Amino acid sequence: MKTKTLLASLALTAGLGFNSTLFAQAPKIEFPAPSPACTIKQHVGLTDIEIVYSRPSAKGRQIFGSVVPFGTVWRTGANNATKITFSTAVKLNVTEVAAGSYALYTIPGESEWTIILNKGVGKSGTQYDEKEDVVRFKTTRKTCRSRLKRSPSSSIASATIPPF
To answer: In this structure, are residues 74 and 105 in contact, taking their beta carbons and an 8 Å threshold?
Structure first.
């Protein structure tokens, strides 16, 4: 009798262990982030340019002039400040910018935007320090006329082209 009980206990323990192993191997489901991270890479002339940012979702809201007020510094994306990297020195507007990584900020306006490259790479998008600006220039605002039908939950990136 003891042998039968022992065998039954061993079989039950092995079965429970095998069963828990099956559940432990179930794939983890990852849901999309509200502001998904994006990377854009482009080779221009002799320079590689990379932009790393989080794409904010409009969620049916008016973004510029409302969520992002006109005339105030914006991190040009969601979450952390947008990062732009140049593999060689570049000239932006009339300013020579050394190769390297920079935080990209903008000041949106109704008719023109101010573009800012800042040394504060890796900081939170809310930790802007004007003393770390490398270059700052103004440009005319352009709106993209998308051929795609956008839903109210579409992201800003599908509705607006950066103005530079």
So the answer is: yes
**Separation CA 22–CA 38 (nearest Å):** 34
Residue 161 structure tokens? 């082209």
* Sequence ranges of the domains in the chain: 37-158
Residue ranges with strand state E in 7-154: 37-44, 47-54, 78-86, 90-92, 95-97, 100-107, 112-118, 133-140
132 phi/psi in degrees, rounded to 5: -95, 5
Q: Which of 81, 6, 90 is nearest to 48 (CA)?
A: 90
Give the pLDDT means over successive 10-residue stretches in the chain (164 positions).
59 56 68 84 94 85 85 88 95 93 94 93 83 94 64 46 46
Answer whether 114's CB lies under 8 Å from 135's CB.
no
6: number of Cβ within 10 Å: 10
- pLDDT of 54: 87
Distance CA 91, CA 109 (A): 24
* Cβ-based neighbour number of residue 22 at 10 Å: 8
Compute the distance between CA of residue 54 and CA of residue 38 in angstroms, rounded to an integer: 6
